[in-house]
Design goal:
By secondary structure, this protein is mainly alpha-helical. The chain contains nine helices and two strands; from the N terminus they run H-E-E-H-H-H-H-H-H-H-H. The radius of gyration is 24 Å and the shape is globular.
Length: 266
């Protein structure tokens, strides 16, 4: 019986892989055919120098990979701030303080209802000159505030989903609100909200491409500069899309492993 189940699972896995490859092949065929119909001539052989260059026999990052380094730098800093801002905002929304709830509400409504592009311009052209911050810091701040508003609702939903009995048990042990959150409520809530928080992280990675409007030479800005010089439109943008896809898939895989560890531990 076990052998039959194992064989069936292997067969389904093979079918899934074949189906995936068929879909990918169909998409590639449509893209190639469409480009050919427009008279586009593929020149993939010109792509490698924009990824890796050789200087005195040593490999050096090309403009795309240099842009990737900037993108990763923006992303990890923004991600930490996003989660921190989201958690603080969620706690303020759930607090007994009228001022705290009001501040959190105003921030949420402003950040969620204004386009990210508008917020980037507002922080860079209005807030940054007042505070004396540079464009990279302004971009990180805008991304963090925008994504933090959505992360706060994810946190709040996770906290509210915890059964009331957990709070009652914490209070019966004499724990303060802070210690109840730290030792009982948040550990359970974070396990529940890990998948949607991952989706928010993926959204942040993709939204980081918008900081190119501030002339920050992250990956998308580098791609635009290369395309304007070489007209390798499809080759460059497909490469950028593949890199973004690899980043988001790696992040999703990492979080899946974390979820499995949480399940094993509990």
């Amino acid at each position: 019986m076990i052998n039959k189940v194992s064989t069936a699972l292997k067969r389904h896995r093979v079918l899934d892989i074949v189906g995936f490859l068929a879909v990918v092949s169909a998409i590639l065929w449509v893209v190639v055919k469409g480009a050919e119909n427009q008279g586009y001539h593929w020149q993939w052989f010109r792509l490698p120098p924009y990824l890796i260059q050789w200087t005195e026999g040593r490999p050096v990052f090309g403009p795309i990979l240099r842009g990737l380094a900037v993108t990763l730098n923006i992303t990890w800093i923004s991600l930490i701030l996003t989660y921190a801002i989201g958690l603080v905002t969620a706690l303020l929304r759930l607090s007994s303080s009228f001022i705290g709830r009001l501040v959190a509400r105003v921030y949420l409504e402003t950040a969620r209802n204004a386009p990210l592009l508008v917020q980037l311009y507002f922080i860079y052209f209005i807030i940054a000159p007042v505070l004396g911050i540079e464009r990279l810091t302004a971009a990180v701040l805008a991304l963090s505030l925008f994504e933090g508003a959505y992360a706060s609702e994810i946190y709040r939903a996770g906290i509210v989903s915890i059964h009331r009995g957990q709070w009652e048990a914490a209070h019966s042990l004499g724990l303060s609100t802070w210690h109840s959150y730290r030792h009982i409520i948040l550990p359970q809530a974070i396990r529940r909200v890990l998948p949607p928080l991952t989706g928010q992280a993926v959204s942040l990675i993709k939204d980081s491409s918008l900081v190119s409007v501030l002339a920050i030479y992250e990956m998308t800005m580098q791609a635009n500069a290369i395309v304007s010089q070489t007209f390798l439109v499809f080759e460059i943008y497909f490469t950028i899309a593949a890199i973004y896809l690899a980043l988001t898939l790696a992040l999703s895989r990492l979080v899946n492993r974390m979820e499995q560890r949480f399940k094993l531990e509990h």
